[in-house]
Amino acid sequence: MGFSTVAVLMFDRIPLFEASVPIAVFGERRDDRPEFDVRVIAAEGGPVRTDAGITLAAPYGLDAVEGADLVIVPTWRRPSAGDPPPEEALEALRRAHARGSTVVSLCLGTFVLAASGLLDGRPATTHWRYAGLLASMHPRVEVRPDVLYVDEGDILTSAGSTGGIDLCLHLVRRSHGAQAANSIARGLVTPPHRAGGQAQYIDHPVPAPAAGDPFGDTLDWALRRLDRELTVDDLAARALMSRRTFDRRFRQATGTTPAQWLLHQRVLHAQRLLETTAEPVELVARKSGFASAVALRPHFRRQVGVSPTAYRETFGTGGADGAGPGTARARRTA
């Protein structure tokens, strides 16, 4: 599932921000990040007009999809207008998928993948505001309106603008390791990883730990104690709330439960240790809050897609310099 050449298909009258997401994630070159060959394609020929009135001169035509191992449709013009995507672009997507390329849509780009037939019989998501329209226009697609992204291995779809960033970072993480994804996320000043199953329409992202904020301070306190036994009751007590109030406020803020968040953070910590240390998996498990490697393994496999040992073989360096490029198996996010 590794990739190095990224084709980004731009259509006329598209939203500007969503169009820029894959370029922002994959386009910047720095020594601490993988280098990608990004090909921005005018999928309908000629300059690309955006909905902001800005015209873009994409340097490539549809023939540049050939040879790309990752093909992204970052967005589409408002689907309620009823314009069908051009058949030439749909055929280019079908050919890319048939030869083994990973095909991705962000936000409204899911309408293009659905029109190509590639999503028939598969789960997929898009912006929650357009999920009903997607389901009515393409009844063979299993629309999931309440997740950030869906990873089906060779085809991935995401929700709205920030969901597209999450999915692109997830692609980097699964193919090039957590260190590479974290480096890109730091440059974008965005969380390095949000699970695909997290709810789309949440009031706020997970609060950043901040002094004086009982909620954020509690999360910071927990993150510094992942090697210890922690319960939701412990978190609630730290936040000076009842268990019921803490559960309710946490779910409102994050779209997930405190227990799910804590488990997710433990697995992320195990990933970092596997990448940057040579410590035995048994010790990594205990330092991440699991009783043993046996206890870590099913949760790690469910979240990352491979066993801890296989992950280390791909991304581990045994030192603090971070992980090198490698290939990890796809993880399904439902």
UniProtKB/TrEMBL annotation:
Pfam families xrefs: DJ-1_PfpI, HTH_18
GO molecular function, one term: sequence-specific DNA binding
Keyword Transcription recorded: yes
Residue ranges constituting the HTH araC/xylS-type domain according to the UniProt record: 216-314
Family matches, as SMART domains: HTH_ARAC
PROSITE patterns tied to this protein: HTH_ARAC_FAMILY_2 (PS01124)
Keywords of the record: Transcription, Transcription regulation
Ranges where the record places region Disordered: 315-334
Biased amino acid composition, Gly residues: 316-325
InterPro entries tied to this protein: Class_I_gatase-like, DJ-1/PfpI, Homeodomain-like_sf, HTH_AraC, INH-QAR
Keyword Cell wall biogenesis/degradation: no
Protein name: AraC family transcriptional regulator
